[in-house]
Structures are given as structure tokens and as C-alpha cells.
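ok trying again, last paste got cut off:
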Amino acid sequence: MLGLLESEEKVVAKKTNKLTDKSRMADLLDYYLDSHAFLKLSRPAQKDYESCTKVIRASLGSVRLRDITVPKAEGAYEEWLKRGTYRANKIAAIMSIILNKAIGMGLRILNPVPHMDRETNPERKVLWEPDQVYAFLDTAYSDIKWRSIGLIVQMAYEWGQRIGDMRLLTWDCIDLDKKRCDITQSKRGAEVHLPISDPLMHVLKQQHDTFSFQPYVAPQIKPSDGAYKPYRKDNLFSYVNDIKQAAGLPDELTAMDMRRSAITEMVEAGVDITQIKQVSGHSNINSLTPYIKHTYTGASEALAQRSAYKEKQ
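nice, full thing came through this time. structure:
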């Protein structure tokens, strides 16, 4: 009888979208994925949320909201860590957002995430050297099957943008006559306006001649279900690995490092932080701190300026 009552309660909660502290985490996840807050997210963000909520559902889906304690959440987090620290923290952050949504609706429940003992995301320090970038692009552009991958990576590097935004870039953002690209970044919604260099313009014109009939700047080279589609994250990174191997590049390099490499190069070149923000889309100068590395170039410049100052005294 108790099991029947619980089942009926779950059905009622799902039908009416009326959540209580006795509802289960799975009910809250269903509610959130059907909410306006979720629907207004960009499609890439929605996919990320859907992926993370599947993990949350598998770990805590059957637990009542009022019973989600810090120890229970930390137990689930220990399982998530098997997916990597960064991913575990992303899942926890999304669970926190969803629980706060329920609390904002008036549910008297605990959000345990701020109280959890979590690992610190490891700081990734890998950077591409310019000659490694050129070797990658030479290899990518040597084979038509890799041309779109090469273009995605080249745009990410030249413009200091995220691979995901370049993967989904559409022709309506590109003005070949004015040699500029106007992007609204998916992560923060920042608008950035970027010049197109002559080498990049050469590749973009070739790409436009081939693919201007469909919306994506660098789509998969073969149609799927009758349409040209952007690369998925998984197959894009698989192709990147194939190109790296063909070019004899280290395994540790990833396409995701392109943005960090570009911004770090601007910092080392002495570009004003305000100007770097106009390229990177960061709203806060402090957000650029991770890109300011302790480098030989930076140290040499600092000591040279100090020596010049002392000589004037």
C-alpha cells in the first residue's frame, strides 16, 4: 500500500508540476527540464544540463528532496569524481542551480552543494606554441576531410574564442566584404567584434565557395539525414586527435587549449587588459588572472624595465 501511495504521489507531482519536499529528486529534474529557466538556455547549454541531470538522476533520483543531506550528496559526488574533477564539479554546480530553483519556489529543503567538501578544479597549463599551431593547420588543410576542423581550430586560435562557439559559427556572423566577424558568445552572452586576417580570409572564402548554401561556417563535410550539420564535440575532438597524430604533435595538446594560448600570447605581448577583454568577452579583469602566467618573457620584460628605470636615477 505504501508503495502504491508513493507511486500515485509521483504521478500527481508530475502531472501538476506541484513539487513538495516529499517529491523525489527525479521529479524536480523533470520539472526543471520543462521549465522556462531551462528552455531559455542556449542549445549547447541545454545539452550539457541534460547530460548532467542524467548523472544526478542515476545517483539521487529516488531520494526525497527533504532527505538530500550533505553526506548523501557527498556520497554521490565521490562517484562523480570518477568522471574527472572538472566534470564532477560541473554536475554539482548544476544540481545546486536546480535545488535553488526549488527553494525559490518555497520548498523547505536544503541545498547541500555549498556545504560539500569538493575538489578544486585542476588548473590546466598546457599551451600551444605557434609552430605547433602551424603544423596542425598545415596537416588539417592538406586533406579535404579535415578542412572544417582546421578552420574551427584556426578561428579559435586567431580570435581567442571557444572551440564550441567556432564549431557552431554561422555565415550570418561573417561579413567577408568588411572582413569582420560578429559573435555573441554562448557562455556569457558577450558580444565581440573581430577582424578577419588575410590568411584566415583566404580560407573563409574557399569555405564560402563550398558551403555557403547552408548555415554553418565549418560543418561536417558530408550531410547527415539530408542536411549538413555542425560537428559534435565527441567526433570533433576525435578528428583533432587524428590530425595531431598525423602532424606528430604531443597528445597533451587539446583544441580547448587554443583560447588560452591566444589570450596568453596577448598578455605576453603587452596588450592592454581592456583590449584583451574586447577580444575574449570577459566582463571582469579578474577573470583574466589565470591567463597571466609566470613566464620567462614576462620576467625578462619586468627586469629590463626595472634596469632602465634605475639607470635614469
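cool. The radius of gyration is 24 Å. Residues 85-104 form the longest helix (20 residues).
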